[in-house]
Design goal:
single chain; mainly alpha; two-stranded antiparallel sheet; about 40% helix; disordered N terminus
Length: about 100
């Protein structure tokens, strides 16, 4: 009986979604370099995700998660206070005289 992590893994460690959802060609097993890149991105983002060589991930999740521009954007959003919602004309109450 094979009890390796590969057979027990049912969800993507990056998005936490099941591998059964979506296109099967969107699943990849990063090699050492790819796993190191995901772990480096995880460290930059301040998260504790650890991916080892051969652990399955969604290809799209890996591309987005390791994208330097996306890392900077997510860090910027996390540190900035949320902006107050702009008022629109719809929010105004019109009073008839």
């Amino acid at each position: 009986m094979d009890t390796s992590a590969e057979t027990l893994q049912e969800t993507c460690p990056l998005c936490k979604k099941d591998f059964g959802e979506g296109n099967p060609s969107n699943i990849c097993k990063p090699l050492k370099k790819g796993a190191d890149k995901v772990n480096e991105a995880s460290h930059k983002r301040g998260r504790d995700y650890v991916v080892a060589e051969g652990i399955r991930v969604h290809r799209d999740c890996r591309k987005l998660y390791t994208n330097e521009r996306d890392i900077q954007t997510s860090l910027k959003r996390a540190t900035e206070p949320s902006a107050a919602r702009r008022k629109s004309r719809r929010d105004r109450v019109f009073e008839y005289c």
